Amino acid sequence: MRVLNFFFIFLICLALVLFSIENTEPTTVQIIKGFQVKAPLSVELIIATGFGAILAWLFSLWSRMQRMLTSRQEARQVREKEQQIQELQQDIERYKAEVDAKQPLLESAEVTSLKTAVAETKTAEVTTN
Predict the structure, then answer these.
(1) DSSP character at residue 27
(2) Among residues 44, 40, 55, 46, which one has the least CA distance to residue 15?
(3) Span 64-73, pLDDT tens digits
(4) How much is the pTM?
(5) In the 3-class helix/strand/coil scheme, how is 56-107 assigned residue by residue?
(6) Contact predicate 23/42, CB 8 Å
(7) Beta partners for residue 4, in sequence order
């Protein structure tokens, strides 16, 4: 990519030099009303090209800064989401530990409820007979 950029810049500069060699007659450029500059056309073109290059460079800096700010914001959001995921995983592990700790109580409650249900069934059968 850099080679391609260098090639285009080289071609532009070469065209500018060839144009400058052929156009040395002085011309007048009116910048604002009442302010005129008289210089060779090639000099005026080189100055205009320089201003264009500076503006393009400033625009690229502005674009790069915007991309950097956007990427920092996205990275911050990713870090926040990763932290939230870790917290949720810790909550899941804690809940699993609580369920595992209460599992024997649930099993004993099931056994007790089964014994109670059997006893109630026997009592209902005895009272029916």
Answers:
(1) E
(2) 46
(3) 999 999 999 9
(4) 0.52
(5) HHHHHHHHHHHHHHHHHHHHHHHHHHHHHHHHHHHHHHHHHHHHHHHHHHHH
(6) yes
(7) none
